[in-house]
Amino acid sequence: MFGIDKKLEENKTLTVLFYNVGGMDTEATIVRYSSYNISAKKTAPYIDVLAEASRPDLGAVDVDLALVRLLA
Description:
- The chain is α+β, with helices and mostly antiparallel strands.
- It has one helix at 60-71; strands at 14-21, 26-37, 43-55.
């Protein structure tokens, strides 16, 4: 899984967009990976979900149908 084993440099952040186009719906999530200091010598990873959205009426089936209509 992306991010669990991700090692970031100190004071760096990484923002990632994950998306999933399923057969019947589409989902998207924006996540920020960073780290915070536990002590002077140790840091811990921090994952922050910034936004998420889902469209239950837009999936791969809908894309297929749109292509069929376009090509027909």
